[in-house]
């Protein structure tokens, strides 16, 4: 073997190994048992759940990795796209919350088997969609009945006009009752999601499938413990009214038996980055002053001068304020984070 041959052979071998390594990282393909599974998630919430289930057999990368980032307004980067392209599994919230993940998945043409959207396994999402469809059917039947009456009466334009206005008002109300996509604040939804994550990881890495199943079961035991504590609050907090600067913790507060008294459109305006109307602010101030709101749920992650004003109104009326975040605070797990949130609610009963 001459010198030229001795040099080229190792180079060719190195090139073959590099190509093999690249091929092993294609989304949806099973890696070698000695390699870690690569998982990309939209936020640290889902990254923690995946890590708890996958343990040291996975490498998880959240796109939103700081409490200072707002998932609603986040725009994906080329680095994010590269991260998803190397992942065997992608976990997102779905429901329009982390729309940047949908864009990335479509651009990369990821197969459905490589993507988990948490809303797809959430009973809350399906229940709310069913209720919304039921309202729409009822509205359609009601409008049909009104039309039949108008044709029968023939000349009562004033009554017919009033019926149309009432129908429009009813429809506007349904627009505001749109389904709340922040399902990670619903413990049952997360418990069902952990099973789905374990199943998908096990499919990608059968040798560790049983371990993933056991880890998910252990996590679910902790989640059931949290669910029991929330259920125990339904009696003591049944008559407690809350307002939110954003609809992030809604599911947890509702599961605890509390009633939403937030002025219509206020939390949605804040979440969408819009201005709170003077009417909504005035209504909020009156509700605080008249003791119609017992607690303010405050999203510290998207704080602004307007939300600070709402908080100041609550504090001036001596209404308790509970801080919530959209993603995991630093150095916490999902379970410990929810434990802290539930403790804050439990403190309202003392």
UniProtKB/TrEMBL annotation:
GO terms for molecular function: metal ion binding. Residues 124-170 are annotated as: Disordered. Residues 125-170 have a biased composition (Basic and acidic residues). Pfam families: ZnuA (PF01297). Gene3D superfamilies: Nitrogenase molybdenum iron protein domain. It comes from Paeniglutamicibacter gangotriensis. Keywords: Metal-binding, Signal, Transport. One of its GO terms (cellular component) is cell envelope. This is ABC transporter substrate-binding protein. SUPFAM superfamilies: Helical backbone' metal receptor. GO terms for biological process: cell adhesion; metal ion transport. InterPro entries: Bact_metal-bind_prot9, Lipoprotein_PsaA-like, ZnuA-like. It comes from the Bacteria. Residues 1-20 form the signal peptide. It is found in: Cell envelope. Belongs to the bacterial solute-binding protein 9 family. Coiled coil: none annotated. The keyword Transmembrane helix does not apply. Its main location: other. The keyword Transport applies.
